[in-house]
Write a structure and sequence with these properties.
Aspartate Aminotransferase, domain 1; 24% strand; alpha+beta; 42% helix; globular; 4 helices; 119 residues
């Protein structure tokens, strides 16, 4: 896949099942932080607010969600059933998306970035 120029273009490159999930995550983020800017960074959908807020991406068997290292650390117990790394979580594509968890992680990152701006 060529590097997409927009979030819409990125999402359109995936099977319908993945598109539905990606759109749901996108809408959840927009509902929490409508002032965040949608962009493509690292060739994946990104929301920015005083810097990178969160990224997300579709893969064959999972949705990658990238709340950064602090986001992973803050929710270590809640994400223990998912495969994760220093700054990423893998949500299996054939399981319900943990929307409540995603919301909490986005809210955490919004607060973190707003505090960063104050400092």
């Amino acid at each position: 896949m060529e590097k997409p120029k927009s979030m819409d273009e990125y999402i359109a490159n995936f099977p319908v099942e993945s598109q539905v999930i990606l759109q749901e995550i996108r809408e959840v983020i927009k509902s929490i932080v409508p002032q965040a800017k949608e962009t493509i960074s690292y060739a994946i959908p990104t929301f920015k607010l005083n810097g990178n807020l969160v990224h997300f991406a579709a893969y064959k068997n999972h949705i990658g969600f990238y709340p950064g290292a602090a986001g992973i650390d803050a929710f270590r117990n809640e994400i223990s059933s998912y495969k994760s790394s220093r700054g990423a979580i893998q949500f299996p594509i054939h399981q319900p998306m943990p929307i409540a968890l995603i919301k909490k992680m986005v809210e955490f990152r919004v607060n973190q970035n707003l505090e960063k701006k104050k400092g």
